Amino acid sequence: MEIFEFFVSNFVQSQYRDRWFYLRARGWDKVRKNLNQLENQLDQKKTVLVQKNAMEFAAQKISELKLLSGVFIDFREGEVPLKGDILDGISGNSVLVFEREKVAFYFHDEGWVYFCQ
After folding, report:
1. Closest Cα to residue 95, out of 79, 110, 111, 84?
2. What does the pLDDT look like over 30-86, one tens digit per residue?
């Protein structure tokens, strides 16, 4: 399963999943142009919004849950396996997915983080 498909299947409300799969099939550019809708379509039962100290929260959760290997989706280049410092180079409107642990972080362009579990 593609990492983006895993993210959508697990953390986006069911009524919006097919739309995100369709956008992904059309290319990362289509996904990127629609990212402004993603935060409102996340499954609120599985996500927590962190607005203050968001990067520190993400770093703490990664350490606390011992998350070591994941995949970064930047919606420009696609899916990139992580190397080195996990949060190094993370930008807004990107997703960090730890599929084995069923955990993800959606980094919003406003500096917020949605913790998905």
Report:
1. 79
2. 999 999 899 999 999 999 999 999 989 998 998 999 988 888 888 777 787 776 666
Question: pTM value?
Answer: 0.90
Residue percentage of the chain with pLDDT more than 90? 62
Give me the sign of the Cα torsion angle 19, 13, 36, 62.
negative
Contact 31, 24 (CB under 8 A): yes
Distances (CA, A) of 22 to 2, 16, 44, 52, 69: 14, 10, 22, 33, 27
Is 65 strand, coil or helix? Answer: coil
- State the helix-helix crossing angle for 3-11 and 14-26, rounded to 10 degrees: 160
**Radius of gyration, alpha carbons of the chain:** 13
Both tokens of 32, joined, read 């990127």
pLDDT of residue 87: 74
Q: How far apart are CA 39 and CA 37, in angstroms?
A: 6
Tell me the Ramachandran region of residue 63: left when phi exceeds 0, alpha when psi lies from -120 to 50, beta otherwise: alpha
